[in-house]
Amino acid sequence: MDRAQLADFLRRRRESLQPEDVGLPRGPRRRTTGLRREEVAALSGMSTDYYSRLEQQRGPQPSEQMLAAIARGLHLSLAERDHLFQLGGHNAPTRTLRTDHISPGLLRVLDRLDDTPAQVVTGLAETLAQTRLAVALLGEQTGYTGLARSMAYRWFTDPSARRIHPEPDHPMHSRIFTAELRTAYAQQGPRSRAATLVEALLARSPEFAGYWREHEVGLTRRDLKRIQHPEVGTLELHCQLLSDPEQSQALLVFTATPGSDSYQKLQLLSVIGPRSLDPTPP
């Protein structure tokens, strides 16, 4: 661990960011160059004291999990993330098609969509980040661990995961989840996390095994999705997708036709907020 270089790198990256870059309001009396330490700490999900000690060269060696959180909070590029890990005394994470590191470009777009349901997902249907309104619409999806991180896995193993879609739509979603996993399996190989997911689902879900035997690939999701919400009912939403092939990630953005019943329901959800749903995954 190179404490001096780590502190300098963190400070310079923090000072190079503006509040608008990370979706924060500037405020009328702001004099700080770049972000404040407490803002970076909040974006990284850690205490201000812990982050401040790193910048002051007196903190403990950060774990890989802490460095990954800081890399996300500072909107680092992959090269900058790797450099951060090395300064922290760790090997840089292996770059694969599947990564939990969200590119700065996708993060900047997501930060500007606070009034819109949007989330970043991986090729394995793992949700990495959500806007406030996405949590209100779909529930908190970033806190799962293990195989359950994948919505595809939860879809076939946890009946409660299907409540967000009307029952007549379930076969369509099952086929699409299966086809997407087959594509990920083919890209990543038999020793990948995609393969681990497939093997687990084949063992646990006869429904998945049946769809897997059909060997469907290339199925595309409909632009119009039906979402069931426990408080406002069913919404018909358009789903736009912005892909980042280098990271094997996508930004999903949900919108409603202005003036429609679903548009009014989205406006109501923005008032109800995420607290209307249980934010803690089972």
What does this molecule look like?
This protein has helices at 3-16, 37-44, 48-55, 64-73, 78-87, 104-111, 132-138, 151-157, 170-188, 193-204, 206-213, 261-272, and strands spanning 118-122, 127-130, 224-229, 233-244, 249-255. With 282 residues, it is of the alpha+beta class. The chain has 2 domains: 3-87, 434 Repressor (Amino-terminal Domain); 104-276, Beta-Lactamase (2-Layer Sandwich). It has a 5-stranded antiparallel sheet. The protein is globular. Residues 275-282 have low confidence and may be disordered.
How many individual helices?
12
Major beta sheet summary = 5 strands, antiparallel
How large is the share of residues in beta strands?
5-15%
Which fold name fills CATH's third level, the topology of the largest domain? Beta-Lactamase
Query: End-to-end distance, in Å?
Result: 37 Å
Indicate how many domains the architecture comprises: 2
The computed structural class is alpha+beta
Order of helices and strands: HHHHHHEEHHHHHEEEH
